[in-house]
Amino acid sequence: MIVKHAPALLVAIPLVAAYLLPLFARRLKHLVVPAALFALLLCSAGSLSLLFQVMHTGLIIYHFGNWPPPVGIEFVVDRLAVFTVLTLSLVGFVVLVYSIDDLRHELREDVRGWYYTLFLTLLASLYGMAMTNDIFNLFVFIEISAIASCGLISIKEDRACIEAAFKYLLLSALGSGCILLAIALLYMVTGHLNMTYLAQAMLQAAELYPYNLLASLALLVVGLGIKAALFPLHVWLPDAHAAAPSPSSAVLSGLVIKIYAVAMIRLLFQVYPAAFLARTPVAEIILWLSTLAILLGSIFAMVQEDLKRMLAYSSVAQIGYVFLGVALGSENALTGGILHIFNHAVMKALLFLAAGAFIYATGTRKIRDLSGIGQTMPAAGVAFAIGALSMVGIPLTNGFVSKWYLALGALDAGRPFFTAIVLVSSLLNGIYFLPILINAFFRKPSGNAAAPRALPTPMTAAIVVLAAAVIVFGFFPGRMAGIVVLAVHRLLGVWQ
């Protein structure tokens, strides 16, 4: 019975826990962290259960209150959804373990309970976005995600965090407005909000109301592009990710911006008719915007002096890889783009958490002040090096696997120029990551980096687990890539 309701429970469990945690924070403070961890442990178990069901029995369709669509709200768990949910659960749980001690350093005691409330609320909304098959329900989860994200950015209450949260709120509201207008246009011409019914009605709507569909498509690309920080709609991201607490940065960069890419993939491949999209320049626009993101995001990262800000600009480049695969549209390219959602979530969470460990131990975030940090903090230093090499795309790391698929996909699509872009981007990544590694391991420790504070066990464990995941999924990519390949087959209509 419980397994049957797993899709709903994945959203309900973190929401219930989020409601209880502020009460625990007032009366039972010692239960706040265990309750949050237990909630995410249940979600991880539920995600694995859904993976087992989907891989063995196929699509899972869940109707809330036994009300079927088009009246009721429907969750559809296919391979893309279960891949996304699994990514959210595993990375989210590791980040939460890391936060146990890091938040004692970054936040006041009276707001930590609220932090975990926001964290779990955010994950609940991301689960909902991954599984919902209702476009207005998608919008509701998007709004919950935006509010929780603003809270996670501003919770430190210093000037930089408040400013970054305000900037994010303004641009996020613009993106939400675009998405809502697009939904209104689609409902006006089809009379449906359920994506399955919407896709069926689109065929006729494309002939009768092509300009309405074109306007809705433009609004969705802009709205979701803002949320996903697709260049040049990324201007909120560097401030937000750099100013937020390190666990927040890891989640925002590793998970939140990716879920909007998943939403766009669903709408482009499962809702809008392929014949209609072929008559529009949307793929070409996304292709060139993603190319600019890859190149300029890396160039902006090169000139940063703040370690977390450099990682934030790196995220602008990395989200470009996801959209590059989407825009190229070949099987290998789309596989590489979707697989990079998981790979980047792991390695960018690793990098932000390792950077947070450096800040925790030394009190500095300036790259030049971290000379010799790899010698005095070997666990965090080696983990950061593994994440950095994966970002560059060194073989036997998971970052190499998704870049390999993207390069092959560009050749399959007859666009070798974009294979060159992937190769050049790896060179650019090396230009700003390798000097940091040289500075960390081959320079004499100085300043606070010469005598850092001891790193708490939960922080070290979380970093080591993510570093191991980078290597494991680099050596053995087949399991995760196999799920993605099956998801891509369904998206491309190779089989249903």
Backbone CA Rg? 22 Å
Instruction: List the helices and strands in order.
Output: HHEEHHHHHHHHHHHHHHHHHH
Shape: globular
Please report the distance between the alpha carbons of the first and last residues: 27 Å
Mean pLDDT: 86
Major sheet summary line:
2 strands, antiparallel
Please list the strands of the largest sheet in the order they lie side by side.
1-2
Structural class: mainly alpha
Instruction: Quickly count the helices.
Output: 20
Could you list the spans in which at least 5 consecutive residues all have pLDDT below 50? none
Strand content: under 5%
Strand segment tally = 2
Helix content: over 70%
Quick tags:
mainly alpha, two-stranded antiparallel sheet, 20 helices, 2 strands, globular
What does this protein look like?
The protein has a domain at 281-496. It is an all-alpha fold and 496 residues long. 79% of the residues lie in helices and 2% in strands. Helix 2 (32-57) packs parallel to helix 4 (109-131) and helix 13 packs parallel to helix 17 (398-412). It has 20 helices and two strands. A two-stranded antiparallel sheet has the order 1-2.
Chart the SSEs and their pairings.
Elements: H1 6-27, H2 32-57, E1 60-63, E2 74-77, H3 79-106, H4 109-131, H5 135-154, H6 159-190, H7 195-208, H8 210-228, H9 237-243, H10 246-271, H11 274-278, H12 282-302, H13 307-328, H14 331-362, H15 373-376, H16 378-392, H17 398-412, H18 416-442, H19 457-475, H20 478-492
Helix pairs in contact: 1-2, 1-4, 2-3, 2-4, 3-4, 3-10, 3-14, 3-19, 4-5, 4-10, 5-6, 5-10, 6-7, 6-8, 6-9, 8-10, 9-10, 9-13, 10-13, 10-14, 12-13, 12-18, 13-14, 13-17, 14-16, 14-17, 14-19, 14-20, 16-18, 16-19, 17-18, 17-19
